[in-house]
Amino acid sequence: MTSAALRELRAETVVDASPSAVWATLTDLSRMGEWSPETVAMLPLKPGGLRVGQWYLGINRRKAFVWPTRNVLAVLEPERALAWDTTSSGARWIWELEDAGEGRTRVVHRRPVPDGVTRLSAIVAPLLLGGADGHADELEAGMATTLERLRRAVER
Question: Which SUPFAM superfamilies did the record assign (predicted)?
Fold first, then answer.
């Protein structure tokens, strides 16, 4: 897998709402399918609600290809940071919230792959996702779309 595919992906926006309002919407992970172009659903797999260590089944799609992912909530800092590790790919999906003043919130969405992608991901990306570099570009564009949809949901 090339270094371009392993780069940290990033998107950000400013939401015309407080960090608490953004947090309340963002942490309803059942709504992730409304916002993300690739994620269809995020379903909790263990009892206990939103908490570090919670497992989620992610259902993703790209064109006709649909696949599951296992995600483990890794960071939960109310009104500041949310992150989960996708164990099937090696990616960490990070959401950071910062008070931007005047009742606004800056939201940064990042996707590093701290230890590189998994062997499974290295095989699947070229075969079913249009190549690793192209899929990384799609993911980054999708992250911007996700943020825009989240922003609109919060600002309603």
Answer: Bet v1-like
